[in-house]
Structures are given as structure tokens and as C-alpha cells.
């Protein structure tokens, strides 16, 4: 039995909630299901989250169309102050990070794992 909560995001926020979501992406339909899930579960008036998810949705659709056999996971975690979005695939993470150059979001990258984004 594990005594300590496992935190997936690279920010290691000890206040992250114990519930996290893992979304597996392989097709355009998966991206659209992710969009529906996020739209329904978060406050749509939070402009930064909406802007980020919109940019990611557009990126992911393009990426999936151009990389048919690509599989990746999105891990969502939250705390009272932050929304953490982790891409669990090195190729996808690097492509998204370069796509988001100069975006108003804070990113951390781990060569072995993923890219994490923090939105407050």
C-alpha cells in the first residue's frame, strides 16, 4: 500500500488533488472526446484554460492527421490554484512545446517522460 500520493506533473505540487484523469489519444475522435470532456468539466469562463485547450486541440488534430500511428496520453491534475496538463509521449511533448513557443503558459520538460503545463 502506498502511503504517499503519486504526483505525475513535473511541478511536484504537493497540494494536487488525489483524483487525476488519463486520456489516451490515438484518433481524431479521441481528441474530440477530450475536448468534450474538458468543456464539460471545467469552468468555461476561465480564459487561460480555454485558450490553452483550444491551442492544444488544434495542435493535436493536426498532429494526429500527420502521424497516423501515434499514441499519447494526456494526464490532468488539479490543485486549488493550478490546472496541470501533462503530455506522456516524448515526440508529441516536444512538438507541442515548440508549437507553444511564446505562449503565456509555464512549461516544464523532462527528456525521459513528458512536458507539463501549469495554468493558474
Describe the structure.
- The protein has 120 residues and is an alpha+beta fold.
- Helices cover 37% and strands 22% of the residues.
- It is built from three helices and five strands, in the order E-H-H-E-E-H-E-E.
- It has a five-stranded antiparallel beta sheet, covered by helices on one side.
- Strand 4 and strand 5 form a beta hairpin.
- Helix 1 (28-41) packs antiparallel against helix 2 (47-66).
- The radius of gyration is 14 Å and the shape is globular.
- The mean pLDDT is 80.
Secondary-structure map:
Layout: E1 21-25, H1 28-41, H2 47-66, E2 72-78, E3 83-88, H3 90-99, E4 106-109, E5 115-119
Antiparallel strand pairs: 1-2, 2-3, 3-5, 4-5
Helix pairs in contact: 1-2
Key attributes of the depicted protein:
120 residues, alpha+beta, 22% strand
Roughly how much helix do the residues carry, as a percent range?
Answer: 25-40%
What is the CA–CA distance across the termini?
32 Å
Q: What's the shape?
A: globular
* Main β sheet profile: 5 strands, antiparallel
Number of strands: 5
Number of alpha- plus pi-helical segments: 3
Strand content: 15-25%
- What structural class do you assign from the helix and strand content? alpha+beta
Mean pLDDT: 80
Low-confidence residue ranges: none
The SSE order reads EHHEEHEE
Strand order of the largest sheet: 1-2-3-5-4
Q: Gyration radius, to the nearest Å?
A: 14 Å
Amino acid at each position: 500500500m502506498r502511503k504517499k500520493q503519486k504526483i505525475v506533473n513535473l511541478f511536484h505540487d504537493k497540494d494536487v488533488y488525489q483524483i487525476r484523469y488519463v486520456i489516451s489519444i490515438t484518433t481524431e475522435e479521441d481528441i474530440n472526446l477530450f475536448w468534450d470532456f474538458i468543456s464539460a468539466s471545467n469552468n468555461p469562463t476561465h480564459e487561460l484554460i480555454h485558450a490553452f485547450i483550444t491551442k492544444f486541440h488544434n495542435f493535436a488534430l493536426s498532429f494526429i492527421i500527420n502521424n497516423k500511428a501515434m499514441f499519447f496520453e494526456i494526464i490532468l491534475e488539479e490543485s486549488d490554484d493550478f490546472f496541470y496538463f501533462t503530455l506522456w509521449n516524448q515526440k508529441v511533448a516536444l512538438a507541442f512545446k515548440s508549437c507553444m513557443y511564446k505562449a503565456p503558459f509555464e512549461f516544464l520538460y523532462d527528456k525521459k517522460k513528458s512536458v507539463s503545463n501549469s495554468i493558474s
